[in-house]
Write a structure and sequence with these properties.
Layout lengths: L1 E6 L2 E6 L2 E5 L38 E3 L10 H6 L6 E4 L3 H5 L6 E4 L4 E4 L2 E6 L6 H7 L4 E5 L6 E3 L7 H10 L3 E5 L15 H10 L4 E5 L11 H10 L6 E2 L6 E3 L2
Parallel strand pairs: 3-4, 4-5, 5-6, 10-11, 11-12, 12-13
Antiparallel strand pairs: 1-2, 1-14, 2-3, 7-8, 8-9, 9-10
Helix pairs in contact: 5-6
Length: 253
């Protein structure tokens, strides 16, 4: 298994002989307005792509955890070939089809499908708590399995919650990817994992390696790599969590 953090939650995954593009956001730096009702007015994305977008336009399949703009933006929809296989959560197909894509498969919560020998199981999550969590809508994670590969759990945009614990219990992943930017609005609490949530994942799944992404690219993601690294080191967890930079590759056996 090899994985490249492109930027934010956008990942290039080479797994079981298959290439997956996950949650592509290809907009140029500052093209999009700031997320509303947040603590600063910086335009998004905050940083450029580490390489030209053309580098990531020919995967075997695209995996979308949900359709928020920082996971599936207009630039990605315009650049990617419309005949690419796209895997998404139940309820998102019509929107994607409306953008011209023709090969879309919805995956129900808890259901699994096999794509070219790789089995993907969709998991749930909570994109925040209380009223703000309800307003943010449905989100997904995915568990990847293939012969000769570690079990990979992509948690998606979620806080530490019962759905994440259930996924860890059921699938016993070797590697967990968490969206750890601690995104927040002015009210309502975090809508993605913050430092404490990442610590909780590490404590709950002590045998798993953790990769933390979704930082320093969107204006309401307030947890930086440096802040998370410092907290993990204080907790004695620094060696458990990889904090890749944009464009960085990780190879895991």
């Amino acid at each position: 298994m090899k994985i490249q953090l492109i930027r934010n939650a956008s990942l290039w995954l080479e797994y079981g002989g298959v290439t997956f593009l996950i949650d592509p956001m290809f907009s140029g730096q500052g093209v999009n307005p700031p997320i509303v009702n947040t603590a600063n007015g910086r335009r998004n994305p905050l940083v450029p792509l580490p390489e030209p977008a053309g580098r990531w336009l020919a995967p075997d399949a695209v995996v979308l955890t949900h359709l928020h703009q920082d996971h599936w933006d207009q630039a990605a929809a315009e650049l990617l070939p419309q005949d690419l296989p796209l895997l998404c959560q139940e309820g998102d197909q019509n929107h994607i089809a409306g953008q011209g894509f023709q090969n879309i498969t919805e995956v129900k919560d808890g259901a699994a499908l096999t794509f070219r020998g790789v089995t993907l199981t969709r998991t749930g999550g909570r994109h925040g708590s209380g009223e703000i969590g309800e307003l943010m809508g449905k989100v997904s994670g995915f568990v990847f399995r293939a012969e000769g590969e570690p079990v990979l759990y992509l948690a998606g945009d979620t806080i530490w919650c019962g759905e994440v614990r259930e996924a860890l219990d059921e699938h016993q992943p070797d590697i967990v990817i968490v969206n750890a930017g601690g995104a927040e609005f002015l009210t309502g609490g975090p809508i993605t994992m913050n430092e404490q949530d990442v610590v909780d994942v590490c404590r709950y799944a002590p045998e798993a390696s953790v990769i933390a992404v979704h930082m320093e690219a969107i204006n309401h993601c307030l947890v930086t790599r440096g802040q998370l690294k410092a907290r993990l080191e204080r907790e004695g967890l620094g060696s458990r969590v990889a904090l890749p930079l944009d464009g960085e590759w990780l190879e895991l056996l």
